[in-house]
Amino acid sequence: MNLKKDERTCLFIDGSSLYSTSRSLGFDVDYKKLLDFFASKTHVIRAYYYAAILDTEDYSPLKPLTDWLSYNGYFLVTKPAREFTDATGKRRVKGNMEIEIAVDMMEMAPHIDHAILFTGDSDFRRVVEAVQRQGTRVSVVSSMRSSPPLIGDDLRRQADNFLELATLGANFTRRQTEAPIRTRTAAPPVRHPADQLSEPEEEDPLT
Known about the structure:
Radius of gyration: 17 Å
CATH superfamily: 5'-nuclease
Largest sheet: 7 strands, mixed
Order of helices and strands: EHEHEHEEHEHEHEHE
Distance between the termini: 31 Å
Helix content: 25-40%
Number of helices: 7
Oligomer: single chain
């Protein structure tokens, strides 16, 4: 994994991306074990977790997780997700944290040696390159073993290291889930757990 004990390291976790990737591999993440695992391998100075949360009167399934994270070593970054009805009348949810993650990575780069980014979204390639130019090493955590693979080629090539979640997962698995759903076409990863409100076989062109 090329993790070094003396490196100042920061974790940047795209919550929706890690959720969808781990589910596709058949496990849930134990976030206490995840933080303990990386803290045992390198000098973690901060762990960011990013989530877009649907702002409605209904109970959010993410609230227990985000509450726990904020009291247990994670720096929580949230914003409201946007709910809308598409042209076919389907209920959709849109919310990504790309700007928030990019800003924090750029701000932290002068103060750390290693950034570990949990996402497979190739839109992050440019910010990874910018952080590298400041002398910060960048590793990306996602999966090539999911079906379809959830790591973009551009991002994987740009990163200094690619960490396979299917291999790392044994260190912070909470429980086994149902077998991964195999899809015939390369659909993008689910951007937010609330997307499950829509039929899973239909793609959301706006995410």
